[in-house]
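Shipment paperwork, digital attachment
Item: protein structure file
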Amino acid sequence: MPERSLAEWLTLLEARHPAEIDLGLARISAVWSAIKQQRCQQGNAIVLPTVITVAGTNGKGSCLASMQGIMLGQGYRVGLFTSPHFLHYNERIAVQGQPVEDQTIVCAFDEIEAVRGDTSLTYFEFGALAALLVFADADLDLMLLEVGLGGRLDAINIIDADVAVVTSIALDHQDWLGDTRELIGVEKLGIARPSKPLVVAEADGPVGFAQMIADTGAAPFIIGEDFNISPDANGFSLEIKIATAESQRFRGLPSSGLLPVNKAAAIQALSCAGFSLDRDKVNAALTGLTLTGRQQQLVIDNRQVILDVAHNPAAATALAAALPPISGRYLAVASVLSDKDWRGIVEPLSEIFEHWGIAEISASERATKAQTLHEVLYNAGLSSRLFESVEEAFQSALKAATKDDVIVVFGSFHTVSAVLNMQRGSDGCIQ
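Attachment content:
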């Protein structure tokens, strides 16, 4: 049989499993065990490096990017698995800060296919296993894994992390995780392991959060108790716990760019993993660090654009707080998937945008109907217009914007991806 290309593999995986989201560890655990057994029989046993797993409603990507940047700046070898991707699938699996080649992923897919038998895997599960295989062969010091959905039943949780991180707990994905912060908190904390460090960056946990943490049996490091942020003249200071009776202080850390709380969680987690961090190198790594789709600033056709994947009310509230007063107008281009609380997303942003351009996402069957988006805005008395596509909505915003205006593209990764695809070949980024 001719070898499949990566594009052919991805098309196959998208169509093969009956459900896009199918939480549970039984399928992926069985295949992972089969892979490890086969590797052992071949005399090539899988030995994973130090592992840090990150869960959370918001902030996962920023925390992981901070850890990756810090560790690369310290001279370590790092692998990073994230999802979803914006432009290319390869973005999901990075070694030394760079997406791996198509052929590397195809080889991993081939190995998984050879042992999975009749076990059906989701698109995400196949990718998670591929990342583990790539990292196992990459001679790494650290493996960073982002939870796809929830934590307890997410595919990534087949790995016993040396350090677990929970960045935040808010309402999102209620159809799968539960409709209260308490239920969601239990799911997120499911990545913790008894006696292993658990870094918690959620400062306002749900009711009973302390007991939830205690029930994991993990060794907790909680923001506001075990590590603390405070403002200073050059940004912010951070004091972390490095041992039972010891602490380490970092001063002058940059407060711009990614949120300080996520940078703080990254530093605490790396320390918990046993890595010694040089203060100057940490500061250098975090200075100017940005992340695609997280309050990312661009200039497109001489117009100011901000891209942000705020797709739940908590993230929308953070976005609203981050948008400063300007002399012109803020114009929105937005769309979300059907499991999102669109009304809750609109509310904190309703006083900010002069006009909303909305469209139904074409790249996902789970897209919210455009008319539903429009009705929420109409009933809230907000100025909006329906478009056939996100691209068309963005083009309209570009034509309507003046040099003093700012276009904010937000919502789903699909929404931001549509504009990123348009941006390639146009004016450069001003991050």
